Amino acid sequence: MQDAPSSCPIPRWQLLKQELTNVGPEEFDRLRAAAAPGTVLDVRNEQEFADYHLPEARNLNYLGEGFLEEIEALDPQRTYLVYCRSGRRSVRACTLMKNAGLKNLVHLDGGINAYDR
Fold first, then answer.
1. Does residue 2 lie within any of the structural domains?
2. 8 — pLDDT class (breaks 50, 70, 90)
3. What is residue 1's predicted lDDT score, i.e. its pLDDT?
4. SS (H, E, C) the chain
5. Is residue 3 part of a domain?
6. What pLDDT score does 70 carry?
7. 17: in domain
8. Which end of the chain is more exposed for a tag (fewer CB within 10 A), N or C?
9. Tens digits of per-residue pLDDT, 45-81?
10. Is the dihedral of CA 78, 71, 48, 87 positive or negative?
11. According to the model, what pLDDT value does residue 78 have?
């Protein structure tokens, strides 16, 4: 009998993340300071957003019923800065956004958990 491989396969969300522009909190804040209104997107649920969110952020719930319609209404020429709590939902949200024709996306690596609050 052969031993099982010692390493686990890379989770799908980490593979998807490799296709994104990922930045840390310092760079995200620099970009956020210059961002157009409505282009900083928090993809957590409404309660998480109400509890805490970055200034100027707009809530588009990745798990909400209207998420696909909301991203289809976004301007594909704009740059969007996208975050969630830990970075997993925002990776998936960015992937859907890319598939919808939005190419100028900046992902907060590690989500808002990456900030020292």
1. no
2. low
3. 47
4. CCCCCCCCCCCHHHHHHCCCEEECHHHHHHHHHHCCCCCEEECCCHHHHHHCCCCCCEECCCCCCCHHHHHHCCCCCCCEEEECCCCHHHHHHHHHHHHCCCCCEEEECCHHHHCCC
5. no
6. 96
7. yes
8. N
9. 999 999 999 999 999 999 999 999 999 999 999 999 9
10. negative
11. 97
Residue identified by tokens 């760079």 is 27
Q: CB-based contacts of 40: which residues, under 8 Å, 6+ apart?
A: 32, 54, 56, 57, 58, 80, 81, 83
- Asked whether residue 96 is assigned to any structural domain, the reply reads yes
> If you count them, how many residues does the chain have?
117
The CATH code of the domain that includes 82 is: 3.40.250.10
Q: What angle do CA 57, 62, 64 make, to 5 degrees?
A: 110
The pTM for the full model equals: 0.86
